[in-house]
Please model this.
Amino acid sequence: AQSVAQPEDQVNVAEGNPLTVKCTYSVSGNPYLFWYVQYPNRGLQFLLKYITGDNLVKGSYGFEAEFNKSQTSFHLKKPSALVSDSALYFCAVSPISGGYQKVTFGTGTKLQVIP
Amino acid sequence: GAVVSQHPSWVICKSGTSVKIECRSLDFQATTMFWYRQFPKQSLMLMATSNEGSKATYEQGVEKDKFLINHASLTLSTLTVTSAHPEDSSFYICSARDGQTYEQYFGPGTRLTVT
Model:
């Protein structure tokens, strides 16, 4: 069974500092990896995805994520945090295979950017 | 980009009544739609997967007679919470998968409060 672990319930970072939100995964075969962001009382907004190719993926709002196959990780990063980045972040995984691909979400990490 | 809408965004109903939530893909055809439930400060729990024109596949533990899902067209899926009770109060999020790109897009969510 596939799974996603986000080991930190909350990450606090000062505005202007780099941020990292951690994610590790487990899936049969090659993974299809995603990051989503959720603001209060809102649905999920897509940030970025990895399917194949360059291990460093760039996404929306200046975010990027690095796929590390040996460590089965897909950490979300941003060089300089903004207060407006404060939100709930979800990592997700699905197997790359034909037919139906169930997406499994992590438990979420709350990012708090301190002015 | 692809847009998924949900209606209503917030609904309050009395215990014992039924509530219907609509999920529409506005600019693409969704061969598959997913319904999730999110409890406060928790991750998304997949409730069911629906393919256009066929019966929904429910996850283990989800009552199919209570949460009726209909996917009548390639742009519309509905979730009906029948005989709602206070414990059904939650944030319900749908997502739609583009039949051509296999990208999954999320709706803004519907907050259901059962009094």
About this structure: The radius of gyration of chain B is 13 Å.
